[in-house]
Amino acid sequence: MIIDYCEQEVVEGKMQLHIGLQFEDEPDSLYVAELAVDDEGVVTEWKLFFNGFDCKYTFRPDEKEACIHYAAEQGITIK
After folding, report:
1. Which of 12, 37, 53, 77 is most enclosed, with most CB atoms within 10 A?
2. How far apart are CA 10 and CA 50, in angstroms?
């Protein structure tokens, strides 16, 4: 998984992170991971979108850890 960017925004009073990524086996496809984060920085929901559509994807633990690590590098602490 190649992570491209991380953006933080507040939607209806709740924090969301959008993380742009690619999978090695699909180098021409750009995806967006949307993470819902509570007030303590805990990710309460993980979603993956492609062209605005929910992929119904289940993130593996190592993929979640990579996203959490990347967000930390950008100054955003999540759990």
Report:
1. 37
2. 21
